[in-house]
């Protein structure tokens, strides 16, 4: 994320070597703000419904692009509560449990993905962020290489080893 102005005092930020890396910082007297550009935590849900995984297309995505249900944590929210909230908001499903799969760095988006398996039941009602969903039978689900794809890969592998 590119930041040009200090959120504390409004002065222009400058590049400087801080802790061995080039970082944006404010050199105004009595400020000292540093933009650390830390990764943003994002929850991802592999929603399993009636033997299929629900993939969703965000309203802003290209027509053929589908992915897992994802979302940002709210202040004071745990990752497992966040993933249940996201499934409720985006699919209208009232789910009770989420099993942690793992964490996955998504360097391209400066995010840390926290992936969960979320078993669900009931009818889907699309939230305002989604344009469409598709149900992919678990046996036909194929992981992709970036973003949430490695979580799908690991979840599928854990299912095979549990049999």
Automatic annotation (TrEMBL):
InterPro entries: NAD-cap_RNA_hydrolase_NudC (IPR050241), NUDIX_hydrolase-like_dom_sf (IPR015797), NUDIX_hydrolase_CS (IPR020084), NUDIX_hydrolase_dom (IPR000086), Nudix_N (IPR029401)
Catalytic activity: a 5'-end NAD(+)-phospho-ribonucleoside in mRNA + H2O = a 5'-end phospho-adenosine-phospho-ribonucleoside in mRNA + beta-nicotinamide D-ribonucleotide + 2 H(+)
Presence of the UniProt keyword Hydrolase in the record: yes
Keyword entries, A-Z: Hydrolase, Magnesium, Metal-binding
Cofactor(s) the record lists: Mg(2+); Zn(2+)
Top-level taxon of origin: Bacteria
Domain Nudix hydrolase per the UniProt entry, residue ranges: 38-158
A Pfam family matched in the record: NUDIX
Keyword match Nucleotidyltransferase: no
Matching PANTHER family: NAD-CAPPED RNA HYDROLASE NUDT12, NUDIX HYDROLASE, NUDC SUBFAMILY
Entry's family note: Belongs to the Nudix hydrolase family. NudC subfamily.
Protein name stated in the entry: NUDIX domain-containing protein
Organism: Candidatus Competibacter phosphatis
């Amino acid at each position: 994320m590119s930041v040009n102005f200090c959120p504390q005092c409004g002065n222009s930020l400058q590049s400087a070597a801080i802790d061995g890396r080039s970082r944006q910082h404010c050199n105004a007297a009595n400020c000292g703000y540093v933009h650390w550009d830390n990764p943003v935590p994002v929850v991802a849900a592999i929603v399993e419904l009636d033997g299929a995984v629900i993939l969703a297309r965000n309203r802003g995505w290209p027509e053929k692009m589908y992915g897992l249900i994802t979302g940002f944590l709210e202040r004071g929210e745990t990752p497992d509560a966040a993933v249940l909230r996201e499934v409720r908001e985006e699919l209208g499903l009232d789910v009770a449990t989420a099993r942690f799969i793992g964490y996955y760095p998504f360097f391209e988006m400066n995010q840390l993905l926290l992936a969960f398996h979320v078993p669900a039941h009931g009818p889907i009602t699309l939230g305002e962020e989604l344009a469409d969903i598709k149900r992919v039978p678990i046996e036909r689900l194929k992981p992709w290489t970036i973003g949430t794809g490695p979580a799908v890969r690991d979840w599928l592998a854990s299912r095979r080893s549990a049999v």
